Amino acid sequence: MLKTKAKYQTWIRIYKLLIFLVISLIFLLATLLPVNLYQRVLSGVLALPFMYIALILSYSVYQFAAFGGNYQSKIHDLIVAKVNWGGKGKILDIGTGSGSLIIKLAKTFPKSFLTGIDYWGGNWEYSKAQCQQNAEIEGVSDRIDFLKASAAELPFNDDEFVFLDLFMDEKIFGDEKELLNVLKKHGVSELNSYKLAKEMKLPNFLLNKKVLGNAVILSGRK
Known about the structure:
With about 220 residues, the chain is α/β, with parallel strands linked by helices.
């Protein structure tokens, strides 16, 4: 019997892509209706921004996914490579998603214990259950806990973790000073941020500010 493979979703929400594709298609089909020329031209013009966004999202999904450029996995590999740590203790992964990064960390540091937190809201296409399943498939479920929690209100004791990682938009990083205060309360004394675009070569489309143009890697340790 073939072993079940772990399933890691990309950061792009597919339902949003489908919405823009459907709206684009509706406007394009409207140009074929037996109406006056002005209405057909207007429908074509209205279709353009939706087509542009759908193109960016479609290309981003392709570049992030394993069947395309595999950049999501490459970015996680970069984050793991930047971990300057002895490998023993507890790691906190903020914004776990479908578990790709935290599982890579668990496999790289076999003596570590890890906790991954995320909100896993209804608008996202991954869940805590999916993370747990992926960790079990990858053979690291005994060292990882997944919790539904907010980065601004970490439900942990002070000094519980020796290392944390976070991959986020630079604008959020700049506005969320409270996040850094919370992290310091939990024993983080050294914080480093890396702008992704300076750390690895990315396709021009991914440099769009709506995709990874503002992305930063934040890591902290005691």
